[in-house]
Amino acid sequence: MPSSKPPTGSDNPGSDDPGRPGKPVPPDAPELIWLRPERTGRGPRPAHSRDSIAAAAIGIADTEGLDAVSMRRVAAALGAGTMSLYNYVPKKEHLLDLMLDATAAEYRLPPEPSGDVRADLTDLAHAQLAIFRRHPWLPALVLARPSIGPNALRYTDHFLAVTAPTGLGGGARMEAMALFNGFVCQFAQYEQTAAAGAKWQAELVGYLTQAAMSGDYPNLAQAFATSGSPADPDQTFDRTLHRVILAILTP
Amino acid sequence: MPSSKPPTGSDNPGSDDPGRPGKPVPPDAPELIWLRPERTGRGPRPAHSRDSIAAAAIGIADTEGLDAVSMRRVAAALGAGTMSLYNYVPKKEHLLDLMLDATAAEYRLPPEPSGDVRADLTDLAHAQLAIFRRHPWLPALVLARPSIGPNALRYTDHFLAVTAPTGLGGGARMEAMALFNGFVCQFAQYEQTAAAGAKWQAELVGYLTQAAMSGDYPNLAQAFATSGSPADPDQTFDRTLHRVILAILTP
DNA sequence: CGCTTCTACGTACGCTGTACCTAGAGAAGG
DNA sequence: CCTTCTCTAGGTACAGCGTACGTAGAAGCG
Hints:
2 copies of one chain form a homodimer.
Chain A (H helix, E strand, L loop, with lengths): L49 H15 L6 H8 L13 H13 L12 H18 L3 H7 L5 H13 L7 H27 L1 H16 L4 H9 L6 H17 L2
Helix pairs in contact in A: 1-2, 1-3, 3-6, 4-7, 4-10, 5-7, 7-10, 8-9
The structure holds a DNA duplex.
């Protein structure tokens, strides 16, 4: 068979070959971007890297919010044409995956656990919260699409190492990590919405007090009365984190 | 001036009146939809209600996913023109608020707590999970925009009633509720993405095993080896829920 | 040198949220 | 009663989105 290159199955030289001319992505290209090689070695050298693309997108998201991150905006920030971006990122979702994993690269993880599980987990939670606070758009994105790039895997590996002394099995420690990450992420997300909604906070308070006084929600009214001052966010975080770690470590 | 209708501004014969003619919403209309009256009593009777609008939107989301919920689609489902919907819902966000609160109406809460805090919280979590499972799009929406409509307030009130015997203060019980809801919601969300990604699950497994075998993530590899069978989702839920309740109730 | 495969990017389509405007329905005030 | 004013219904239009598709040219391989 002299056919120099059958792109997919049945090169059959004498008949119809659906999808041969212009389809380098038959349908077997992996959906997961981490399974696609960044570069195949053939053709001209790409002008950009996944890292630079992610950095550009993160820059836009940090300064103008996640909604401002569009394919056109990112491409323009890179000095590229809009559609050129699709050579690197088959769908916008994958751009978000790149952004997510790029933030996971910000962890400065110690080479190995200290042996004090509580302390290590507390440090890890604070590192995570710091990253979330640095990128206000990040919590929403993490909650919406849990993605596992290489850097996220490094984080996972570290968590597993930290919790190894507990004696829990692999599955149990994965569940623990989900609980742990979920808490930190939701806390950061709450902080974000609270900060963004500072303008409407007055409205909200009015609405809630009105609801409390309506008599329809007696326990809410009582809780309002019982609750003290607004409480420092960091204290609340540490207090609840302590409970979460306790829940994880309790056999 | 024979002009039969001054469309905007300054026909007023006596003085300047900023924003009278064509601005029924000067800028003091509340952003919170729950603070806007559903009906003012003046003019023709509206053809739709917030409930029917929410029901229509939920119907679309249940069958075609949240992305299919557009203003046009919902209006069409109601048999209305697209822009008519904006008389009921000033922005799309508010449509989502209506959907959220409509799902909170699905709770069948007991008139008052049984006195067994653990049992009540377990029941509540199961009710919540059932609602989440009934509306696959719901977890993502709850995580993205925590909104507090009348039905959500009823839920909150019930939670506060259930946790009253713990002796914790109002603020502490609110924090506990956030932790509790957050866990259930994230669990449901995880189930959803796992179900939706069943098609790519093979890819993911391949990626993870490849990562585990690469040697870069030794603890991940070991956890893979240590973990047993995939585990039943309901069992995992109950097990972790137990831990969360424990975290809440531990003084 | 071809051949092939890659990159770059312009054009175009269908869809989105929603600003704005025009009619007309119906309650409130004289 | 009639007038007036506010409300609802809905069409048109616009900017922006993700991305399918096609073309032109550069770089590696045989």
